[in-house]
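User: Some background: our group keeps a shared notebook of sequences we're curious about, and every so often someone picks one and asks for a predicted structure to add to the entry. Today it's my turn. The entry only has the sequence so far, pasted here. Could you supply the structure so I can complete it?
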Amino acid sequence: MKILLTLSLLFFTTIGFSETNVLHLDSTYLGENLVINANHYTNSGDNETVAISIHGTRGFKTMEVISVLSDNLLDLNIDTIAPNISYGVNDRVNDFLSCDMKHLHNQYANIDEIIKWFLFAVEKDYKNIILIGHSRGGQDIFQAYKKILKLYPGESKKISTIILLAPLADNTDEINNSLQKSHGITIKEFLSKDENAFAKINFLNCRNATVKISSFLSYYNLPRHEQLIPMLKDIDIDTYVFTASEDTFVPKTHSKVSYIRNDNIKLVQIDGADHFFRDLFLDDVIEKLSDFIE
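Assistant: Of course. Here's the predicted structure to add to the notebook entry:
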């Protein structure tokens, strides 16, 4: 895979300035060159710490939960690289990925994009790197961390902290139950189908989407060691998990994480918050993070 830095755009914010870096990505999974983009929140100082902040399912880099957190991290002298996961769309815009498309994208390609942004942060000479993920982005950032440990053991030492905001914690049994209720089919039956064929099925919060079988399986047939809860059990760096009491997207995450016995995990429930920590509940997250990080 080859990275080429092609463009830098500057635009001012109320706190400092945000720099958007655009990279070319030669994707192993999609078999084509893609332009991927991210907002680089920074101020005029020489900050040595950066957060790589990943949005949730079909989301985008300027969502409130990502952009507000990024702005506030600048007060702690922490820069942020907030990418748009491309989902195979060239230079994807800041909007939810459309349901009305043929879904060819691959979850493992998403992980590779996150790793490219990590390597970009290393190239920018950041000394300390924090990984942040919201919703499905929490699972993604964890999978990327595990892959970084294997592929780049030296550079991985720069990662000090992982922050998960209402992370996805589904397991295969729960996905199977949902599939049986909605479509009368199981993952095992999908495995017997032609991976290049398409299905009409509920996919990434899209009803009856047109999805390539291989794409569907890449998201929903994760082996146990790539699912969030098993990965959390042996995490060996500081990991902060924020859950929301009124979360209807991942309502079981708090109870699942609470059973894990690992001193590296700090679990915080934000009472009254929804999945996106709207209506000022994100302030509570930021206040807690300030205590932890300082």
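Suggested note for the entry: Residues 1-16 have pLDDT under 50 and may be disordered. The two ends are 37 Å apart (CA to CA).
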